[in-house]
Write a sequence for this structure.
């Protein structure tokens, strides 16, 4: 990981709003091992009692830190967050002795953006996430980051700015629900029987523009097609069962660090 | 798991090998032979000779009246766009001012992607937020920006690959022309001739965006030509380069037109010939070394930029084949030069000219400076300007847009250089018909032409390059800033300020077809073919409009 990428990861802005909650993805746990809504509620109560005196009701009471928006001085992963809460910071923040449920709650409340209906996304280690992206996850086969990787799927060089943490996590574990409609694969069969599959870049009543599976730009006139179908099951596999909770958290942390 | 991945990779490799070969990438070899690839238009000027002549001939003088509009791309940035789009295998790459690139399906006009480049609010370009187009090499599209950057974008996705700062926009530098690709390098020049810049052409590595060489159009101390400047005048000497150059692969020379010296209108502030302002320069594209130069207007007082497109043509000259460069200059003279050496062959005025009584045997003008307040012909915008001309090897004629009977009176002032501010050395007024009558044909106007023939008229002219003699004139009431396209069926397409897109017989100058597009046409028309159908396209105002023959049109062949 380059120095600048590392620096970027220190300041991720994950605004999680109720808008992230979409059909099929109920507030709370979207992935086994993630924070549950009950954690977020518990966290709110602990936060108000123990943290709000200094950090404020909106999480921005300490200079350079905005807990609600995910802006920290040094914290990256959830482990960092827990560590700082339990050890404190020099002459500033005292060390807190929380039991595991309280600690989980604090992290969940912060990661949900102080939103009880939000999704608390667990962030792991972005360096490990980067390795997963190129390696075990095979993400780079279809996705491009800063000029490297495939073009079949959308370029992810700035996904950390363009999407919320909840959406990024959702895309990984449950693409069938989270995939943007424009990114759904389509299958077209021309009158002479040629089958073209690809990802839509643009569409109107008469024409559709694709990048096909050979990464070539193709424009198709619908009247000239024998068959044209938007595939509801995404080409992208769901990683819910392919990656464990820690790995998903690492991958989310890496993607969140990509700011373009 | 590992085994499965490997097996999948092997299967994929086989699948790729079995796919029909697609000529997906624009290689340098394809650029060298762009003129033979009639269905595509892969450089700003159509090919390295920059003749804007297409081998396509489906649309002919006989069937041109069956043209119908196929699609329109409506831009959403106001102004009169100056771009010429590129088309490669049915994909069109168009720029929307100032610096957006849009990839369109050339058959339907529907977009694949759009790349947006944000220019800073405090950048200055003298003459509008213009961009004239992109260059393409491999799977990359290249664009110069108004704030003097050069960017590379992925041709399939529109994602930016690199962004290089060419010059400091805060000092008045800008890039408005389409880059020129030669081998593995991207060549660009800089605008800013009204802001006291020191112009240059530079080459960048296509893969990395790193600068490879830079040639200053105003030579510094110790360089040949520096003696044509006094004291420190060269530091703000101008010499902008804002129109795409040409390339002769057999001579391995690239030709670029250089703009006005600074300050524009006060030569008292820069005694000497002021090389290489108002010149054509021939550079080695590998090193940027100057091979030869020819100066059209030494110590210019009238803003006669030589930023015309260098048009290369091979012709017989008194029985011997000669490699020519054809040049209708803003100063009102047409020139033919030997492009191997820069030797002057022919020169002749093509509009009313009174700033010089003629050219000497070497092509140097015999200047006749005006008395204070006297009207100078051609006027400040020139007898012609940057508007793309065309040369048809079939007719042997050179075609360009002119402003005739248009003159300007100048008032000189001492200009003080302040970084990033205008540095022009005076003002000018256009010779008008009556006191306070509208009379300023500058860059654009509204829908009403209240300037009239009294301040000048426009035309497309056909000139015999061997003599400079005019063969025919296609007259317009208003002046014209349109480019010109000719085809192998001897059609000539052009626009104009009046917003008509017109097809003219290239042999006779007779109007054959027109369509009123409503917006000023300040761009170069171009042509391409997709799925066996020939299209012609032009920008009018902020819209790109394409035409092709109706399906029931008679298909004729012109031999």
């Amino acid at each position: 990981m380059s120095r600048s990428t590392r620096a970027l990861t220190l300041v991720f802005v994950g605004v999680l709003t109720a808008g992230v909650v979409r059909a099929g993805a109920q507030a709370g746990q979207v992935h086994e091992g993630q924070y549950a809504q009950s954690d977020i509620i518990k966290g709110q109560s602990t936060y108000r009692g123990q943290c709000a005196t200094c950090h404020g009701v909106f999480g921005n009471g300490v200079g350079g830190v905005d807990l609600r928006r995910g802006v920290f001085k040094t914290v990256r992963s959830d482990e960092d967050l827990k560590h700082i809460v339990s050890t404190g910071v020099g002459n500033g923040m005292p060390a807190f002795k929380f039991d595991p449920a309280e600690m989980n709650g604090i992290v969940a409340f912060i990661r949900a953006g102080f939103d009880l209906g939000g999704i608390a996304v667990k962030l792991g280690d972005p360096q490990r996430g980067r390795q997963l992206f190129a390696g075990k996850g095979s993400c780079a086969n279809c996705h491009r980051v800063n000029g490297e990787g495939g073009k079949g799927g959308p370029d992810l060089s700035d996904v950390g700015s363009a999407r919320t943490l909840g959406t990024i996590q959702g895309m990984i574990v449950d693409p069938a629900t989270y995939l943007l409609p424009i990114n759904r694969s389509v299958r077209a069969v021309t009158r002479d029987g040629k089958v073209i599959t690809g990802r839509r870049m643009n569409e109107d009543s008469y024409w559709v523009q694709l990048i096909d599976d050979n990464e070539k730009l193709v424009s198709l006139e619908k009247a000239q097609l024998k068959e044209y179908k938007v595939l509801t099951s995404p080409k992208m596999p769901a990683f819910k069962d392919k990656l464990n909770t820690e790995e998903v958290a690492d991958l989310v942390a890496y993607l969140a660090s990509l700011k373009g | 798991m590992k085994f499965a991945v490997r097996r999948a990779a092997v299967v994929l490799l086989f699948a790729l090998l079995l796919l029909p070969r697609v000529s997906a990438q624009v290689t340098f070899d394809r650029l060298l032979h762009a003129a033979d690839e009639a269905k595509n238009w892969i450089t700003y000027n159509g090919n390295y000779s920059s003749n804007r002549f297409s081998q396509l001939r489906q649309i002919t003088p006989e069937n041109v009246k069956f043209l119908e509009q196929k699609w329109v791309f409506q831009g959403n940035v106001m102004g009169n766009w100056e771009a010429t789009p590129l088309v490669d295998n049915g994909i069109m790459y168009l720029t929307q001012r100032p610096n957006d690139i849009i990839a369109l399906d050339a058959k339907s006009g529907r977009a694949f992607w759009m790349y947006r480049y944000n220019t800073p609010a405090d950048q200055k370009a003298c003459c509008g937020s213009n961009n004239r187009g992109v260059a393409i090499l491999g799977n990359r599209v290249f664009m110069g920006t108004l704030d003097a950057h050069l960017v590379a974008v992925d041709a399939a996705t529109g994602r930016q690959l690199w962004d290089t700062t060419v010059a400091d926009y805060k000092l008045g530098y800008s890039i408005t022309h389409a880059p020129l690709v030669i081998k593995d390098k991207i060549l660009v020049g800089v605008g800013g001739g009204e802001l006291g810049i020191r112009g240059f052409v530079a080459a960048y590595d296509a893969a990395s965006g790193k600068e490879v060489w830079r040639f200053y159009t105003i030579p510094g101390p110790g360089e040949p030509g520096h003696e044509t400047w006094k004291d420190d005048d060269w530091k703000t000497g101008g010499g902008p380069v804002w129109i795409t150059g040409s390339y002769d692969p057999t001579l391995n020379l690239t030709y670029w037109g250089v703009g006005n010296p600074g300050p524009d209108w006060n030569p008292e502030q820069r005694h000497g010939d002021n090389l290489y302002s108002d010149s054509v320069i021939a550079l080695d594209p590998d090193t940027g070394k100057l091979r030869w130069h020819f100066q059209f207007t030494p110590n210019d007082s009238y803003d006669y930029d030589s930023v015309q497109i260098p048009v290369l043509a091979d012709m017989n000259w008194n029985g011997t084949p000669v490699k020519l460069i054809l040049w209708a200059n803003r100063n009102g003279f047409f020139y033919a030069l030997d492009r191997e050496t820069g030797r002057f062959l022919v020169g002749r005025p093509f509009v009313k000219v009174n700033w010089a009584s003629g050219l000497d045997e070497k092509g140097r003008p015999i200047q006749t400076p005006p008395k204070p307040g006297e009207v100078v012909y051609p006027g400040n915008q020139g007898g012609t300007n940057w508007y793309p001309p065309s040369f048809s090897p079939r007719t042997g004629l050179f075609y360009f847009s002119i402003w005739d009977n248009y003159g300007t009176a100048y008032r000189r002032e001492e200009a003080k250089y302040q970084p990033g501010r205008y540095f022009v050395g005076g003002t000018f007024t256009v010779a008008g018909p009556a006191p306070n009558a509208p009379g300023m044909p500058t860059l654009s106007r509204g829908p009403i032409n209240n300037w009239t023939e009294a301040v000048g008229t426009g035309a497309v002219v056909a000139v015999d390059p061997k003599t400079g003699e005019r063969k025919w004139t296609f007259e317009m009431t208003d002046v014209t800033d349109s480019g010109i396209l000719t085809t192998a069926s001897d059609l000539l397409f052009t626009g104009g300020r009046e917003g008509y897109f017109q097809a003219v017989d290239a042999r006779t100058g007779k109007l054959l077809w027109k369509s009123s597009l409503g917006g000023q046409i300040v761009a170069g028309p171009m042509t391409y073919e997709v799925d066996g159908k020939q299209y012609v396209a032009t920008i009018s105002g902020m819209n790109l409009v394409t035409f092709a023959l109706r399906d029931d049109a008679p298909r004729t062949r012109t031999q």
User: Anything to note?
Assistant: Residues 61 and 286 of chain B are 43 Å apart (CA to CA). The longest strand of chain B covers residues 320-328. DSSP finds two helices and 37 strands in chain B. The longest helix of chain B spans residues 2-18.
